[in-house]
Amino acid sequence: MTGTHTARGVLATVQPTFMLPAVGLALAGGAHAPTVSLPLAAAHAAAVAAALYTAHVVDEYVDAHVRGEHDPVLSATAATAAAVASSLGFAALAALLWAAGTREAVAATLPLWALAVLHAPVLDTHPLSVTVDYPVGVALAFLGGYLVQTGRLAPGVAAVAVLLVVSLSGLKVSIDRLDREFDHAIGKRTFPVLLGDRASTRVGAAVHALAAALVVGFVAASVLPPLALIAGVIALADAALAVAVAPRWSVRAQMALAYPFTAALLAAQCASAGCVAAEIMGLAG
């Protein structure tokens, strides 16, 4: 491969669709703290980005060069070099955060690298782990962003992280419905492949319904404020979409609703806890 082709491959493996939500939630986690150190927030967000990029280039190596699932965008050598470079960058950033005394944040961030290197060769081969690994990574990015500023975990922040895992897992089941035939052909064991389309549709809807029930439970227990119930309504809409709408349109709608779902949770927690973002916007209660 030429240098130009390699450069294009390096850029192609950034995959903003996955990168931006995780980095954005890492920054949102920091914005939920009473005060914010911008250098620490930037270092943590960069560590999240490095872990995700590692996952993407490891996926490229395994899927293209080991399993032959698609034509490579990077040579095996370039993919390996990119994975090593991003891993070293991640390690350097984690060391920086440790030296800054944010050890709780490092504890939440280190698993991101483990998820990155295990996703394609291991986690991608089991229906449960292939469904929850990205949602868990996003939640850890959010928690790490908060911990890097505070050093302690607030119950409401933990509740938001749990709800992100559950809701995004329901979305992932629906997304995997679109790829069922291809995944079956390559031996990838997602829930739609394992259970069939109809049963996996019910699984996805049930996971969204669980998210709605958890929202109600957290509000009833005063872990989250009543404003979070908006997210519960959105989760119920996701459940209905999963069973009542054709897969492609259902996935598009669920992906669109993931943003107001997350925003409702973040706004509810932020306004009730008096975070930096709420103070800036005058929402603190």
TrEMBL record:
**What membrane topology does the UniProt entry give?**
Multi-pass membrane protein
Keywords for this entry?
Answer: Membrane, Transmembrane, Transmembrane helix
Which Pfam families would you find in this protein's record? UbiA
Its source organism is Halobacterium sp. NMX12-1
Ranges annotated as spanning the membrane: 38-58, 78-99, 105-123, 153-171, 203-221, 227-246, 258-284
Q: Where in the cell is it found?
A: Cell membrane
Q: Does the keyword Mitochondrion apply?
A: no
Q: Specify the protein name.
A: UbiA family prenyltransferase
Domain of life, source organism = Archaea
Molecular function as annotated in GO:
transferase activity, transferring alkyl or aryl (other than methyl) groups
Cellular component, GO annotation: plasma membrane
* Coiled-coil stretches: none
**UniProt main location, coarse:** membrane
Answer yes or no on keyword Membrane: yes
